[in-house]
Amino acid sequence: RRRKLSFAFVWLGLLFTSVWMVLTGLSGELEVFLVGALAFSGFALVRVLKNQLPLVWVNTCWLTSTNVAIFLGACVVHVDGHIDIMLVPMVGFPFAVFSIYRDRFHIAAMVALPIILWATWFFWHEDWNPIIDQATAVRFYAPMSALTAFSIIVYPVFYFAIVSAQHSTEIKRARQDAEQ
User: Fold this and answer.
1) Cα 69 to chain center, whole Å?
2) CB neighbours of 177 closer than 8 A, spacing ≥ 6?
């Protein structure tokens, strides 16, 4: 079940990072495009290597590349693009894709990563010169950031709701079978 969940997240990641790659590509700035490409490549890599790597490393790969890409995106896009807000819901993913019993180190590391990256950005972003200006950030990047952050939160909730409903149906069916 955890593998299925993880690859559902990977498909969502491929969809969103494809859109981000187009958006960053339209910027005309190579550095900005490379940030979008980093996000996409993490998901694409785990899609290709899903059967060669243990699930814990697959999840670590896409979580790390996504967090780093969000951080770098926040560094190259004006603060009004609100790229940094996507780091906040990234804190929850490790609890969904790692086993609380076997993968505690990975959970701790992958929860700490977006927190550390966000804190780094928060304390030093005023010292950096963004490549994407304020007007472009507000018009294009901020809506996409909000949509992405919202989806990062809502998609797992819907997924778990569906899985819970399926599990409940299985339990009811088993109870009915046991009563007969």
Assistant:
1) 10
2) none
Q: What is the pLDDT of residue 28?
A: 93
Kindly report the pTM of this predicted structure: 0.88
DSSP string of the chain? -HHHHHHHHHHHHHHHHHHHHHHHHHTT-HHHHHHHHHHHHHHHHHHHHTTTS-HHHHHHHHHHHHHHHHHHHHHHB-GGG-GGGGHHHHTTHHHHHS-TTT-HHHHHHHHHHHHHHHHHHHHHGGGS--SB-HHHIIIIIHHHHHHHHHHHHHHHHHHHHHHHHHHHHHHHHHHHHHH-
CB contact at 8 A, 75 and 134: no
Give residue 4's pLDDT band: very low, low, confident or very high (50, 70, 90): confident
Under the banding of pLDDT at 50, 70 and 90, the label for residue 50 is confident
Longest Cα–Cα distance of the chain, Å, equals 71
